[in-house]
């Protein structure tokens, strides 16, 4: 009993204070949500469920409170979520008046399986209950990630980012990405991507909000499934910019910074997941700096050792982690470490070996490098 009381007291501040901030001219929500802890890395998406035929379900969302993000002009509303007073949503079913459902918090109370005529599989329909007046409506999951925000997910993102400092790390090298501005750091005033943001600039996350951009992207609105949460970052020199918390297709960012180090164990490769596809946090940056310093110290010690072992020409190449035709097997090991695999072929002309590394193949004839090939 005391334990339950303690949990209720801890959750009480969330019930009172939790409120989704909305940019632009959207009216304030009609009620405050009850926040339930959320453990998903995405906003509204399916999870695998082997107990059902199509293996994907939204059932993990039952009990969550969601906020409906109002479209910011009348034209775009025709592409947005429609609400119904029956779970049997099919062609010809009349939707509820839009204004009676907008700008509210809803609790997902159930999932109703409904099989439309001629459909191959059942369809999951959300049963939503208004947190203010208890009104019950139904809607399809289609494009839901674009129109709703799970309040628990919003609070989770807020806790993970607000007040923290991040280091910019631009991973986009191709001009093809220009059109996909949702994956960029955007100027808060101009809504445009600044291509000239310097690497390793520091940004503090100062705000989080729901931001609907359908007004300027109306023609693509029906295909836009990203979660409409943005985080606002500030840099002392560049000002305020924002970033979406998910990609344009509503998936978590999975971009990584690929690091390569040469150590006494050979070439080491490590992929470090970037925050929002474009940031390192201060701990990650400190780790990379530490590894870079260790690599520099290793090179200095290795150069002295290899010059002494192999002489000026070969010793310099080995110390710098280079490979060259004519090197011995031991030189190769000292330069690149042990290979992942060794394939041997013996003929009357001698023994041929292929050493397999992460990025290259090294070929030996009679104990010396005869060829180097990219994988």
Topology record:
Elements: H1 2-17, E1 47-48, E2 56-57, E3 65-68, H2 74-77, E4 105-114, E5 123-130, E6 136-139, H3 144-147, E7 148-150, H4 151-161, E8 165-168, E9 186-187, E10 202-210, E11 229-235, E12 239-244, E13 256-263, E14 266-273, E15 279-281, H5 282-310, H6 312-319, H7 329-336, E16 341-347, E17 350-356, E18 360-365, E19 368-374
Antiparallel strand pairs: 1-2, 3-4, 3-7, 4-5, 5-6, 8-10, 8-15, 9-12, 10-11, 11-12, 13-14, 16-17, 17-18, 18-19
Describe this structure in words.
The chain has seven helices and 19 strands. It is of the alpha+beta class and 375 residues long. The chain has a six-stranded antiparallel beta sheet. Strand 17 and strand 18 form a beta hairpin. Helix 5 packs antiparallel against helix 6 and helix 6 packs parallel to helix 7. The longest helix has 29 residues. The radius of gyration is 28 Å and the shape is elongated.
User: C-alpha Rg, in Å?
Assistant: 28 Å
Strand content: 25-35%
Counting DSSP H or I runs of 4 or more residues, the number of helices is 7
Mean pLDDT: 80
The low-confidence parts are: 1-17, 74-79, 173-179, 215-223
β-strand number:
19
Helix content: 10-25%
How would you sum up the major sheet?
6 strands, antiparallel
Order of helices and strands: HEEEHEEEHEHEEEEEEEEHHHEEEE
Q: Could you say which structural class the secondary elements and strand pairing correspond to? A: alpha+beta
Amino-to-carboxy terminus distance = 63 Å
The best one-word shape is elongated
Strand order of the largest sheet: 9-12-11-10-8-15
């Amino acid at each position: 009993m005391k334990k339950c009381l303690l949990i209720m007291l801890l959750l009480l501040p969330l019930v009172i204070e939790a409120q989704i901030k909305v940019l632009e001219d959207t009216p304030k929500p009609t009620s405050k949500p009850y926040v339930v802890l959320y453990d998903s890395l995405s906003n509204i998406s399916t999870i695998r469920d082997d107990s059902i035929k199509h293996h994907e379900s939204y059932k993990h969302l039952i009990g969550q409170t969601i906020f409906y993000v109002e479209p910011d002009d009348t034209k775009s509303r025709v592409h947005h979520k429609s609400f119904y007073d029956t779970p049997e949503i099919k062609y010809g079913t009349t939707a509820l008046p839009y204004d009676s459902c907008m700008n509210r918090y809803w609790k997902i109370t159930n999932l109703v399986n409904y099989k439309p005529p001629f459909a191959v599989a059942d369809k999951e329909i959300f049963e939503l209950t208004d947190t203010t007046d208890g009104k019950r409506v139904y809607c399809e999951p289609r494009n839901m990630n674009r129109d709703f925000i799970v309040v628990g997910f919003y609070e989770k993102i807020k806790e993970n980012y607000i007040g923290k400092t991040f280091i910019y790390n631009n991973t986009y090298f191709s001009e093809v990405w220009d059109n996909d501005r949702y994956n960029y750091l955007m100027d808060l005033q101009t809504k445009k991507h600044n291509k000239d943001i310097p690497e390793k600039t520091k940004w503090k996350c100062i705000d989080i909000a729901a931001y609907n951009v359908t007004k300027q992207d109306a023609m693509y609105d029906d295909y836009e499934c990203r979660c409409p949460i943005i985080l606002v970052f500030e840099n002392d020199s560049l000002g305020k910019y924002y970033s979406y918390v998910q990609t344009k297709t509503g998936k978590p960012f999975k971009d990584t910074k690929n690091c390569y180090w040469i150590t006494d164990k050979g070439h080491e490769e490590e992929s470090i997941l970037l925050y929002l596809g474009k940031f390192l946090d201060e701990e990650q940056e400190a780790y990379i700096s530490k590894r870079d310093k260790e690599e520099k110290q290793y090179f200095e010690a290795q150069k002295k050792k290899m010059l002494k072992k192999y002489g000026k020409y070969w010793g310099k190449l080995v110390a710098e982690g280079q490979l060259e035709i004519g090197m011995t097997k031991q030189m190769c090991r000292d330069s690149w470490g042990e290979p992942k695999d060794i394939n041997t072929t013996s003929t009357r002309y001698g023994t041929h070996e292929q050493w397999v590394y992460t990025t290259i193949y090294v070929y030996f004839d009679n104990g010396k490098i005869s060829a180097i090939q990219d994988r």
